[in-house]
C-alpha cells in the first residue's frame, strides 16, 4: 500500500501550516452520547475521564447507567476503569501531568486518584469552601485553582503535601469567565488568575487583584496560551481577541460569524486558538486568519502544549502546527536539500542515475539535509513515512565521509518506543515533542499505571532504565489480587524478583498490609535490605519491638526517637520502660529527650531502673531551677532522702554534700537578713560566701563558717588574703603578718599585696619567706623598689656579681650603700 | 577522575552555598531569616551576609533569641531537625508569629541536614505542619581550611560521651558517604575506638543500602560509586574517647593558644578591641556575618583566622615559643620592603611600589593584630597561675606521680581559678593514670563544691559518666605495662603507651621540630601517634627502638604494610575496638581503574576525628602531611573543634542556687 499523501490534512493558516492527524477511530460506542458528558483529558496523550453532565437531560436506559460515575478511557477508547460516584456534585475534573485524576466536589473536597484504578487520597480546600461551595476549577500540570461562589480563589500548587492557599480577595460581581497562568510563567512565581468580572478583567495573584481596565466585557471566555504569553478572549459581541497576557497589546481579532457562544476556547500550541461549538471547530491563526472544521457529532477538545486532541465518537485526531523541518520537506514545490534527498530515494528505487545527480547537487548541504530528515521522521505519525525519511537520511549519510550517527540511532529508538505505545491497545498517542517532555521514565510510569508490565519492562530494558518500580508495582498488585495463601504469594514474589537490584520490599509489604495480610507483610519485610525503610510500616503493623530494633540497627537516631515517641504515647509506662530497658541506645535517647522536658518521666525511669544517684540528680536539677527558697530546700531534702539507704561511699558522700548544700542555703538566708538589704549571699558557694564576709568586714562570721563547714585551713587563709587585699585592708594584713607561721607560706602574701600595688607592705613579707633562695628574694626586694635591701641579701650570700648587677639598677644612697658592700666583699688589694 | 576538579573543601563550600541560595531563591521576595545559633557560624563560613542580601534576606535573627518580628511577610527558619530542642523552638516561634501577627506570614523551614520524622511529628503536634513550606538543606561537611573539613557540630562531644546519643555518628557517616560518592569507596577503613567501629559499621551498611538503591536509579544513573576509589588510600577514624588525655592538655601552638585564651569559633575569634584595635580589617568585617552583633558589642571584634591571612598561616601551627621570633622577622622584612620606596628611582619602580601598597597595608595590619594578640597571650602564659597549671599538666603527661601535685591543685582552687581549668587538671590525671584514688577524689569533690557551688555535684556525675573523672577501681590500679589488665581496651593505658609509642620526647626542638611532640612542647598526642602507626611505621619503629631521632625524614616505606600491621599489640592498650576493613569491589573494575589512573599518583588519606579535634592535633597532622607530601595527601575531617575547656563545658552544670533577677 502506498503511503498516504503526507500533505493530506494540511491547512494553511497565514504563513504556517497546520495539520490534523487521525490517530484512532471507533473510539466510543454509539450509546455514549458525548454531548452529555464533561470530558477531561490528561496531558501527554493520557487517559480521558468522562462524567455525565448533570445539568443536561439524558436518556434513561437501565439502573446501571443511571448511577453517577466517572469513566476512564484511553485515547483509543479502551475502557480502563469506572469510578462509581456518590460523593456529590462534581465542580472540577482534571488531571495532573503525573496522570492523577483530580475530582473536586461542590463542598470543597478534593480527591486525587492515582494509578487510574481507584486508589485515592483526599483533602479539603478549607477557606470557607464548605460554606460557600466551589463553583468551578481550572487546572495546570501540578496544581489547580478553585473559584468559590463568593468569588474567592483557592490555589493548590502541590498534591503531595497539599496546602490550599487563598489568593487575594477579588472584586464583587458576576464572573463571566476565568483562566489561570501557571506559576512557571508568572513573574511572581505563584499561580495567577485572570478573572473576567463585569466589563473588565482582573489579574489576581496571592497579594493583589489588579484591574486591567477593559471595556468590551463581559468576556464569555478567557484562555491563556500554554506559555502564558497570550490570552484569548471572547468579547460580549462574540469576537475573538488575542492579546498579550499583560493586556498591553492586541495581536489579532476574529469574528466567527456565529451568534452562539463557542463552548470552549483553547490554544493549539502557542500560535493558534481553537474555538469549538458542538460540531464545529475554528482554528484561528495570527491576524485573524482561520480554518474551519465540521463534524457530524459532538467534538471535544483536549489541549496539549503542542496542539489539541479532537475527540468524537468515531475518531481521535491530533491537530497541531506543522514543524519547520516537516514543512521544508513536504511543502509543495519545496526545493530544500532534505526534500531533494527524500526524492532521490524514489529515484534510487527506480535505479535511476538521477539519484546520484541529485545528491551531488545538494552535496554541500547534505549533512543538514540528513539532520532534517531524521528530525522530520520523529514528527511523523505514519510509520511508512518515518521509514522513508530514515531511509533517506541513511542514504544521505552513506554518501558522507564523516557523520555522527548518534542522533539517527537515538531517533530510531525513540520511534520504536513511540510506535509501541501508540498502538491502540495501549492508546498513548504521544507526539515526539510530548515524548521528549514527558521523558521515558514517566512514560514507563504511565504504562505501569495501566498495568502494562510486559511492555514497560521491555521498554526499560530497551532503554536501559531501572525496572525495579515496575516489579514493585507488579508485586503490589499481585499481593492485592492473588487469592492463594500467604506463603505461596511470598515465595512467588521473591522468586520472581530474585537478583533484581533495588527492589523495595517495603512498598510491597505496605501493599500487603493495606490489604490486611499482615503475616505476608512481615514475611516480605524480611527481604528489605534497608532497615530504616521498614520502621514506619512495622510501627503501623504494631510490631513495636521489631520496629525499635530495626531503628536502632539503622543507626539513625531520628528513627529511634520517632519509634520511641510513638511507643511512649501508646504503651503504659511500665511496659514502655521494660521495652527500652534492655536497649541502652533507646534508654539513652529517652533520657536525653526527657531531660529538661519531662522530669517526671525521668524520675520514674530512674526509680524503675534502680539508679538512685540519677534520680537524686534530677531532683537536684529541679532544686536549681526552683525560684523560691523553700522549694529549693524541699527538693534538696528529697534528693538527699533518695540516697539515704545506701552504704556505698560515693553515695554517702553525695548525700552528705547535698545536706551541706541545704545547710549553706539556710545560713545564707540568715546572713542576707542580718547583713544585707537584699539577697546578696544566697546561692553563693561556700568559698564565695566566706570571701564576701571577710571583704565586708565580718571576719568573725567567716571564721565561724569555716569551722562549721570544716573548710581546710589553707583555703581559708587564701580566701582571707584575697578578700583583704581586695578590701585594701592593709592594717589587718599587717596584723596577720605578725603570725609566726602561715599554712600557705608568706610568698602569696607578698605576691598578692604587690599585685595590688602596696610595695611597702609587700616588702614586710620578704624576710618572712625564709626558705626561698637568695636570688629570688633579691628580685622580690627589687620589685618593691628596695634595691638596698636586695643588696643586703646579696651581701649575706656573698654574691659579688649580683651586687654589681644591682649596682646598675640602683641610684642615690642605695647605690652608695651597694658600693660599700661590694668594697667590703672584695678582697682588698 | 573526580567529576568536580577542585578539592573537597572547595567542592563542599560551593555545594553548601549553592544549596542554600537555591532554597532562598525559592522563597520569592524579601524575607527574614531565623537561624539557630549553632548554624549561624557554619553558614557564615561559606556565604557572606551581602550575598544573602542579594537573595532577598532582609534581616537575620537568632532562633534562640525568639525575637523574629513581622517586618517581612516571608520568614525562613534554618535549624537542625535532628535536635529536638531546636525543632520545638521553631514550632513555638511559628505559633507566636501566627498568633500575634496581623500579617499573614509565608513560612518556610529549611531543615538541616534533612527533614526528620520527629520534626514532622512535632510540627504536626503543634498543628502547623500544613502552614509551612518545608525543605531540606543537606549541610554536612563545612570546610574550615583546604585540608580541614568539619561538621561543626558543637554538641557532638557531649552528645557522644555524656548523653550517649549516637546521632552524630550517623551524621558523620552520612557526611563520609558524600566523600565516598564523590571519589568512590575508601579502599580501606582503619580505626580505633568503639564509636569509630560503629561509624565504620554504619559506613559499610550504608554502602550496602546505596548499592541497593543505586541500581534502582533512585540515586542517579551513575554507577561509579560502586567502585573503590583510585584516588583515595584509606580512611582513618580515631574516636576521641581513645585519647581524652591529649585534648585536656593546654595547646601550645599559636592557634591552639588563641583558642585556649580567647576561643576560636568557626575560624573566628572574638577579641577585645583594646587588644587588636577597633578598626576592623575590611576583609574580616566582610566575612563576619551576623550584622546585629557588630553594632552592639563595641568592645569585641571578630578576627578572621584562616589561611586568607598569610601571616597567620605561617604562625598558626608553630609552637608559641617561637612566634615572637617569626613576628620580629616579618616586621623587619616589612620595614625594609616599605623603605624600598626611597630607593625607587624610576617611575616604573615607583608604580610597582604603589601597586604593592595595598598588600603591604594588609600585611601590616595583620602583623599588628597578631603582635598584639601574641603579647596578650604572653601576658597570660607568663602569669604565675598559668605556669603552675602547665607544670601540673606536663608532669601528668610525663607520667610522674600525680599525687605529688595535688597540693598545687588545691591552691589553685582556693585562688578561684576558673572551674574548667581545675577540672581539666583532675580529668587529665584521671585519664593518664586510670582514675584518682577514691580518697583524693572525695577530698577534691568536697573542696570544689565548696569553692564553686554545690550544683557541681551534677558536674562530677556527668564527668564520671563521660569516664573523664573516675575513682581508681581495684581493677584498674594494676595498670601494669605488659599484661594490660583483665580487660584490655576498656581504658587507655597511657603508662604503657607512653613507653611503647614514645609519647614523651624531651629533646624536641620547638624551632625546628623533628617530631609532632613539639605541639605540646615535648608530648606527642596519642591520637596522632596512632595515625602515625598507620602512616609512618618505619619512623615509629625507629623511635621505639630508641634509635636517635636524627632521622627526621622517615625512610620511605618500601613494603606498604596496611592497617595496624606491626602495631596490633601496642594499639590494644588504647581503649576500644581496633579494626582495619578492606572494602572490596569488583576485581576486574579495580584493575581497570588502576591501569587508567596509574600507580604513582598521590593518594588521599582521610583522617576522621570522631568527637572533635584540637588545633594542636591539626598542627601535628599537618606536620606529618608535610613529611608525607611526596606520597600522600592528608585531609582532616572531624565532628568539630574541641579543646579541654569545651570538653568541660559539656559537663559543667550551668544552673546555680542564686536567684536570677
UniProtKB/TrEMBL annotation, chain A:
Which Gene Ontology CC terms are recorded? endosome; HOPS complex
> Which segments constitute the Vps16 C-terminal domain?
503-811
Give yes or no: UniProt keyword 4Fe-4S: no
Provide the GO biological process annotations.
endosomal transport; intracellular protein transport; vacuole fusion, non-autophagic
GO MF, one term, reads: actin binding
InterPro entries reported in the protein's UniProt record:
VPS16 (IPR016534), Vps16_C (IPR006925), Vps16_C_sf (IPR038132), Vps16_N (IPR006926), WD40/YVTN_repeat-like_dom_sf (IPR015943)
**Gene3D superfamilies registered for this protein in UniProt:** Vps16, C-terminal region, YVTN repeat-like/Quinoprotein amine dehydrogenase
Keywords, in A-Z order: Protein transport, Transport
Q: Where is the Vps16 N-terminal domain?
A: 7-409
Family classification: Belongs to the VPS16 family.
Stated role: Essential for vacuolar protein sorting. Required for vacuole biogenesis, stability and to maintain vacuole morphology.
Q: Under what name is this protein listed?
A: Probable vacuolar protein sorting-associated protein 16 homolog
**Which organism's genome codes for this protein?**
Aspergillus ellipticus CBS 707.79
UniProtKB/TrEMBL annotation, chain B:
Kindly list the residue ranges recorded as spanning the membrane: 605-625
Oxidoreductase listed as a keyword: no
Q: Do you know which PANTHER family this protein is assigned to?
A: VESICLE PROTEIN SORTING-ASSOCIATED (PTHR11679)
Q: Which InterPro entries match?
A: Sec-1-like_dom1 (IPR043154), Sec-1-like_dom3a (IPR043127), Sec1-like (IPR001619), Sec1-like_dom2 (IPR027482), Sec1-like_sf (IPR036045), VPS33_dom3b (IPR043155)
Is Transmembrane set as a keyword in this record? yes
- Tell me which family the UniProt entry assigns to this protein: Belongs to the STXBP/unc-18/SEC1 family.
The record's annotation in Gene3D superfamilies points to: 1.25.40.850, 3.40.50.1910, 3.40.50.2060, Syntaxin Binding Protein 1, Chain A, domain 2
Q: What domain of life?
A: Eukaryota
Could you tell me which residues belong to the region Disordered? Answer: 280-303
List, as start-end ranges, the regions of compositional bias called Polar residues.
282-297
Read off the Pfam families from this record.
Sec1
GO terms classed as biological process: vesicle-mediated transport
Q: What is this protein called?
A: Vacuolar sorting protein
Alphabetically list the UniProt keywords: Membrane, Transmembrane, Transmembrane helix
